[in-house]
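Below is a filled-in request sheet from our internal design queue. Each sheet records the structural input a requester submitted and the sequence that came back. We keep these sheets so that new team members can see what a complete request looks like end to end.

REQUESTER: design group, bay 2
PRIORITY: normal
MODE: inverse folding
CHAIN LENGTH: 140
BACKBONE (tokenized):
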């Protein structure tokens, strides 16, 4: 079933790549995914640092950059690699949710954003949001 709100070209590209086992194996191999996770974490830390005065805290399994302007992230917050970007959404439940996204970044590396958006924009049907816990993430 097609994910609603996802461009056809993205759905097609993900479907094409998922049928090519060698390509999938290479992209998801830890030797490729892990450096992608590290790069994403560095980019998230730089973005959060520049906008938040380089104030970081480790909490709930993620590096938290709080106090950012609302336009700097999606919804209540966004995890990029190991870094959670937010203004003030830092409850224990949300941090548990974001820690699952951090693990997803670690597993999939730079392929994660493509897979995430291909899974759909509705959090209730997006497999990555469901795995992270809809209730913990503030989705009702």
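RETURNED SEQUENCE:
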């Amino acid at each position: 079933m097609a994910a609603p709100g996802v461009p056809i070209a993205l759905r097609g590209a993900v479907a094409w790549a998922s049928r090519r086992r060698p390509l999938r194996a290479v992209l998801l191999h830890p030797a490729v995914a892990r450096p992608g996770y590290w790069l994403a974490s560095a980019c998230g830390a730089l973005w959060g640092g520049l906008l938040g005065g380089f104030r970081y805290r480790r909490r709930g399994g993620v590096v938290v950059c709080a106090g950012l302007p609302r336009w700097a992230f999606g919804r209540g917050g966004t995890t990029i690699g190991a870094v959670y970007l937010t203004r003030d959404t830092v409850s224990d439940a949300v941090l548990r949710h974001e820690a699952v996204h951090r693990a997803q970044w670690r597993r999939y590396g730079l392929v994660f954003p493509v897979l995430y958006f291909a899974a759909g924009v509705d959090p209730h049907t997006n497999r990555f949001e469901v795995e992270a816990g809809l209730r913990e993430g503030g989705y009702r």
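SHEET NOTES:
- The helical segments are 8-18, 21-28, 30-52, 92-108, 112-118, 127-132.
- The longest helix spans residues 30-52.
FILED BY: M.R.
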